[in-house]
Fold this sequence. Notes:
The protein is an alpha+beta fold.
Amino acid sequence: MKKPLLDNFGERHLTQGEKDQRAQLSRAARPRIAATIVLTHGPRDNPRILMGKRSARHDFMPSVYVFPGGRVDRADSYAAYTGKLTSRNAHILEAAFTPRKARAVVLAAIRETYEETSLFLAQAADVQKNVNHPSWDAFRAAGLKADLTNIDVFGRAITPPHRHKRFDAWFFHKDMGEAPLPVIKDSAELLDVGWFTFEQIKELDLQRATKMMLNVLQDYLKYDRPPRDIFYSYARNGKYLSETFPNALP
């Protein structure tokens, strides 16, 4: 059953520049496939979460804290990798994509994490050649292959039509355990990159979708064995709606 989340599209983070760019479009932008990953560290009931602040120069969601992520690139379909999708991930992602594209969505989240935080989610491997892409070249130069192991999808959200850029974003989770925190750095994309508890995140400036997916994450982390469908949010006729996917129609 479709559940309304909000009755209108008013969002305080919508800048005047974003409104002006949307006004120039004759119709809603087509959503582009994107992937983001939520990395948790420490105890499952009170983890730290990797986030960073988007640059004020961005023309989409500037100056808010987000998880690492971005658009799926064509090169992600051909990048070297190790590990494989679990049957649960394949069941969910392949309800929307071909097997190659499903894997590429996960690889995009890994690549974007590296680009935005300098963190490699990878395993040592001898990569003779890789696709012609600067980020995947960096994996190869470091003697690494992207690692799909223990990365699970837990949500999907499509940007509402009132924004000038729209994404069909898939949210993944990976538990980093309780080993020493890995080295991370700020980038041109994300500033103040760090590990934040749920309590600390409450004090950060967040966009509506990020708050929503943090709530979804808290529910997901309670499962010993997650269900074979995920939370799915989208907007229609001036309302935010939520369903499950793949039980829901795209």
